């Protein structure tokens, strides 16, 4: 039985069946969605140059050629639709309830529409995210940024994440108005995903990565190699990040894991960062810092941006956020917002489990229902962070589209009302 009837695909894909066995591909076919997306962009550019007023993209979906987790039955590889039809009974994550997922060509078409002004939004449109200037960098960033650590995968203690999931989440991030993405060589597969799925949208976001990270030959951070802040390793981290993320520059390069100033001086860490800045490989310098070394990081005045731990349950760095902002630096909050919502597993190592268990217990005892006014606890905690007057942005990560969309909806509401913010501070204490 010949399933693929189109003459165009006869040489590329043949599907056979004998009436009893399920149809299958008889030759290996490599999925390359970026080739299709590039072809769509090329055609649209030609139409634009020739003055065409409109173009109809054919085809949206090939329902007769569904995708499959089994390579020999992934018939979508022969389809030219801009979405792929899922196997019977499955629904997508990008648009819950619908039996398809967007392909790279779908996102390319959406990007073209945005760039051409077809999807311009009014300034007062309620779908825009609030922004703030990131200190002396002058970069205008969304107050909600995306933390790509959740893209790390099993190689770095994370959950498995498929290419489809990574592509959909990262493009949802940008489509939602977030323009700040934080990552690191330490985050397993995260940088590779960014390069594969959104490097073609590079001018839409501020990209932050780290240095000092161990670049083990096998790329496995679970071997617990030490961070190294030598000039050679700083440069190697940047070169690897640029290669992985398919870009020619990082907007901000941060030192990871908060080493002391003495260590950085001994290793010439900052001098190498400044050399990379002079070469155009990075635009601004930063520190992913915390106590006890953070005060001296701020005092030396060389870092343009600080990434600091801060939440309603851990306010130990609250005054340091203000100190960094007063010095002219950009300030970004990090640290899990969602983890305190559930008790940590008993199997977790005790040094990690203990503070999380404390945060969970304090949150449960605080009784926040009367403050929520219908909002989730997650929304309260996120909007609490944004209520700090000297904080420019907060990064939150997730590998789920629904979580990204919920976070965006919460941030659009802005900081908490003063009375709710004050009550939350009082009930949860300083942490």
TrEMBL record:
CDD domains reported for this sequence: AKR_PA4992-like
Pfam families named among the record's database cross-references: Aldo_ket_red (PF00248)
Domain NADP-dependent oxidoreductase: 143-426
InterPro entries cross-referenced by the UniProt entry: AKR2_Oxidoreductase, NAD(P)_OxRdtase_dom_sf, NADP_OxRdtase_dom
SUPFAM superfamilies to which the protein is assigned, alphabetical: NAD(P)-linked oxidoreductase
PANTHER family per UniProt: D-THREO-ALDOSE 1-DEHYDROGENASE (PTHR43312), NADP-DEPENDENT OXIDOREDUCTASE DOMAIN-CONTAINING PROTEIN (PTHR43312:SF1)
The protein's name in its UniProt record: Oxidoreductase (Related to aryl-alcohol dehydrogenase)-like protein
Organism name: Streptosporangium roseum (strain ATCC 12428 / DSM 43021 / JCM 3005 / KCTC 9067 / NCIMB 10171 / NRRL 2505 / NI 9100)
